[in-house]
Amino acid sequence: MINRAMGVATFNKVRHWTIFLIANAIIAFIIAIVQCNSQQVAEHSYIYWLATINAVYGLLWFFLFSVILRKGSTNASTTPF
């Protein structure tokens, strides 16, 4: 979507895909922590385990959707490999 909006293939490298993959994991981790804090959950280590598992699931889903949706991409059809 970013490539189509910009009109040029600037995000078609593995490096860019990796940056978005890591950003996705960080955002998933932060969202889990923020949601637990907003619900006033007691501070325990399980909150950080939840956030870590959420980040791992985010990595997994990002990779799977990248592989599935890359066939429809005109500029990034070779990422992640």
How would you explain this protein's 3D organization?
It contains 3 helices and no strands. The protein is 68% helix and 0% strand. It has helices spanning 2-6, 14-38, 45-69. α2 (14-38) runs antiparallel to α3. The radius of gyration is 16 Å and the shape is elongated. The mean pLDDT is 80. By secondary structure, the chain is an all-alpha fold.
Give the topology:
Layout: H1 2-6, H2 14-38, H3 45-69
Outline the biggest β-sheet. Answer: none
Q: How many beta-strand runs?
A: 0
Helical residue percent band:
55-70%
Beta-strand content estimate: under 5%
Q: Helix segment count?
A: 3
Low-confidence stretches: none
What is the ordering of alpha helices and beta strands?
Answer: HHH
Distance between the termini: 19 Å
Multimeric organization: single chain
Rough shape? elongated
Rounded to an integer in angstroms, the radius of gyration calculated over CA atoms is 16 Å
How would you state the average pLDDT, rounded? 80
Question: Helix/strand-derived class?
Answer: mainly alpha
Keywords summarizing the entry:
81 residues; elongated; mainly alpha; 0% strand
Short description:
This protein has 81 residues and is mainly α. Helices cover 68% and strands 0% of the residues. The chain contains three helices and no strands.
